[in-house]
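Hi U.,

Before I forget, here's the chain from the pilot set. I'm dumping it here mostly so it's searchable later in email.
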Amino acid sequence: MLTGFSGVAAAQQAPSTPAETPEKQDTTGYRDPNEIVVTATKREASLQDVPISITALSPAKLEENHVSSFDDYVKLLPSVSYQSFGPGASQLYFRGIATGGDGLASGPLPGAGLYIDDVPVTTIYGSVDLHAYDLARVEALAGPQGTLYGASSLSGTLRIITNKPSTAGFEAGYDVQVSKFGKGDFGGQVEGFINIPISETIAFRASGFFEHEGGYIDNTPGTRTYNRPHTDGLGNVVDAPLTINNNDLVKDDYNDVETYGGRAALGIDLSDSWTVTPGIIYQHQEAGGQFLFDPRVGDLKNHDFIESHNRDEWYLASLTIKGQISNWDLTYTGSWFHRVVDNTSDYSYFSVAYDTYADYNYYKTASGQDIDPSQAVRGYDRYKKWANELRISSPAKNRFRLTAGLFAQHQIDDRIAEYILPGVSTAVNPFSPPVPGGGPDDVYFTTIHRVDRDYAAFGEAEFDILPNLTLLAGIRGFIANNTLNGFSGGYGAFDRQVTLFGCTGTTVQECPNIDKKYVERGETHKATLTWKPSPDKLLYATYSTGFRPGGNNRDAFALGQLQDIPAYKADTLTNYEIGWKTSWFDRHLTFNAALFWEEWKDVQYSLPGVLGIFYTVNAGKARSRGFEGDISWSPMRGLTFTGSGTYVDAKLTQPFCDQVNGCDPANGGQVFAPKGTRLPVTPKVKFNLGARYEFLLGADKAFLQGNLNHQSGTTSYLTPDGNAALGNTDQFTTVDFSAGYRFANFSIEAFIQNAFDERGILSKNITCAPSLCAPYARLYPTKPQYFGIKFGQRF
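Structure:
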């Protein structure tokens, strides 16, 4: 059997310590891809011995599927779904626990956690899109992980584990790839890593990459006519049509991406039992154009009238100290995370949606020139996060085992959002001074300082009732503190002569309108019973809970005055799960699966309010139930079949009603979504199937591989009215092929992803409430047909 010979996989299967060896091979030569050591429980253990539903992607699996970005590895995780606006702007969900209303700077925290090693990097708006190279594995932990991972691990946790420095020996390598989208542009990447033992007790490991990904969406020529209804001098509403074009922005394949970065770590053995590992990761990404397309214009085509651009730059500095006090393991992890996201995009369909309102789009200069009312939106976020965790674990061989710790996290989001109408500062009919704190052409402006603090104490204890029967119990107590300060507003959309909120100042300090604080305390807990009837069979039953802290809403201007929008509280998830992990026929066949039922209470959901300004409420209750599993079968030497999939049925279990007047129309209430409404974004069925054949070609090694990925359709919006306006997404199936050859320490392979160019739609996105903006929805597609050739060398 030829195991993981390809490119990166060959080097990454010599990790830093024997405990991290990601794959093992039995004496018969058959491959056992599930024999992977994971650290999901904060201890090292074989994947097959951990009573949690985990999908673990080994280095070989990542390499075999040409994983380099967030979209690539989520495709291989059936329990995970997401919605996205493009690179670095994806919201992550597990097991259907989604409302589609995440990603707002002043809205709910994410419902799924994202970690790099032991460091939380979960941020509001979009998940960090770490370039996948020189990784030990990816672990997707489905279900609430609140006991060990705390806030924002409501529905699950995704962990990206990097390779660590090793004193075992020198190793290095590089990979070069050339790629092209079938109907799009060329791209390529260069990657490399090195591991240097400096001495018997010190090692250094570093990796770096540069990637240019060609575009595949075209911005095509188009014109647009605004009716611009306005009130004339006699009080009549008349139109003043204005036609514009986008000739200056026409470009094929305009959504290209350029990303570069690297990682460095130093491993220092202070003694036989104490190690220190400082490390740093840096990544810079520039993306142009839109990653959503407009189906009214054509397949993978848009009519953009304003240039779009996204810059996402971040670094993560961390320090891990491991040692022993007596025979107990002590681990400290500290980190500092800094991220800047600067995004400008076409917001002109908001202008189109409001073109029916008198005096909204009608602007002229003093000389009588018409001003194009097309809006742009710029969002600038500066994230800062420092986190500290100290934990202690008793010996793993004891009958009674304990892991306990303390956690503190402090995260800041300083956000500026500008809704810009270029040239409006020269308008004379009518217009007011600039929005306080905003630019001269801002028609709406937000600046907020959001701080989320999370303090916790946690513990999990295991006791072997019998040698093959274990009871686990865990609890986490927490204090969550959220503050929101700043300004949000503009001037009346239909009367720009009146200063919003009655403030005549010109700075944010003179016109603040947000100053809120929300504090809550609580606990989350877990109990698991595990039975191993034989060494290669494990069954478990779990009861667990998870939480996501509440927070503050911006105030809103309505009915001529500032309206106080109350805070929203934590939502919680209760999970009931039965699962099994089994190996058969000398591990030639493995089958792991879980059945789950989850109850979601006080669901946090963001609604569009006045002029499309969103606020968050606790919408009620929902539940998700389903099945997830994976299988691997090696019927003969060199041949492996794999499959994984999930079925999820997620829906509201009580009506989602007006938060003030309730459900009864007689009392002014309204049912926004009735009981039984399906939760959006998540497909009911998602699975992938793979076959790989590795063989000798003369004295060298070669492989052939095929993969099939399928998911069913989804609803696009929680409320039935909104979903009817947007429409569901359809089911789709994509197929990938690859082949490769290795000789000496060189490797070369060719691949094609989405070979038949299936246009799968992952989400539908709008810029304002569905009642206004649904006709202008844009679609986020799966990666189109994509070819590549990759060459690598190892030393």
